[in-house]
Structure formats: C-alpha cells, structure tokens
Amino acid sequence: MSELDSQVPTAFDPFADANVEDGAAGTKEYVHIRVQQRNGRKSLTTVQGLKKEYSYSKILKDLKKEFCCNGTVVQDSELGQVIQLQGDQRKNVSTFLVQAGLVKKDNIKIHGF
Predict the structure, then answer these.
(1) Is the dihedral of CA 80, 65, 55, 108 positive or negative?
(2) What is the rounded CA–CA span in Å between residue 74 and residue 89?
(3) Separation CA 43–CA 86 (nearest Å)
(4) Average pLDDT, rounded, for the chain
(5) What are the two backbone dihedrals, phi and then psi, of residue 32, each rounded to the nearest 5 degrees?
(6) What is the separation of C-alpha 89 from the centre of its chain, rounded to a whole number of angstroms?
(7) Which residues does residue 47 pair with via DSSP β-bridges, in sequence order?
(8) Residue 93 belongs to what H/E stretch?
(9) According to DSSP H, which parts of 10-89 are helical?
(10) Model pTM?
C-alpha cells in the first residue's frame, strides 16, 4: 500500500510560491504612480506609497510649483495618504522623486495606459 501512496500525484498548488513571497513583499516598498481618466481629455495622477515620515503637503507644494498644476492630498482608509495631481504627470513625478532623493528609481512603479 505504501508503494501506491508514493505513486499517487499530489495536488499542485500554483500559489505556493506566492504565499512564500508575501512575507518578503513588505521588505521592498514601492511607490505607485497611476493615471486615472476623468471626463473627456481630463486625467488625474495619483502617487501612493511614500514613506509616512515625509511631509506630504511640502512634497505637494513643490510638485505643484514645478509642474504648474493643481493637486491635493487625500486621506484613504486602505492606502493612507495619496497625492493627487491634475493631468498626466507620471514621468514628471517619477523623475522629481528620484532627483529629490525621496525614492530610488528601482522602487517606482508607473501604471496606466
């Protein structure tokens, strides 16, 4: 009977590796930059995942002045504080964050179109 048990294939779990990686996922914090389509040609850029010790209002002030656009900081229950900017500012924001030394280029994920 033990010979038969060793020959019976076990169920394959495709998510077994993903469960192991979930523990390591918190070690590398990503900053997510997304674009959301509003009505017509209007769009909205959101930045989430910055460290909590940064002053979001000061970063927003510099971003608004640098890119000549309006923006706000929104408090979200799941995501925490999220910076919103008018227009498609994905590339501008990513280069700004890298040049300011707030985030490494490897830790930025750009989403959208």
Answers:
(1) positive
(2) 17
(3) 6
(4) 83
(5) -100, 125
(6) 15
(7) 33, 83
(8) helix 90-100
(9) 16-25, 56-67
(10) 0.72
Contact 83, 46 (CB under 8 A): yes
Q: In the numeric block, which tokens belong to residue 70?
A: 């309006």
Q: Which residues pair with 110 in a beta bridge?
A: 33
How far is the C-alpha of 35 from the C-alpha of 42, rounded, in Å? 10
Query: Smallest Cα–Cα separation from 81: which of 105, 49, 40, 33?
Result: 49
38 contacts 44 by C-beta, under 8 angstroms = yes
**Which amino acid, 96?**
F
What's the rounded Cα separation, in Å, for the pair 27 and 103?
14
Q: Which residue has the higher pLDDT, 54 or 10?
A: 54
Count of alpha carbons within 13 Å of 78, Cβ hemisphere only?
Answer: 0
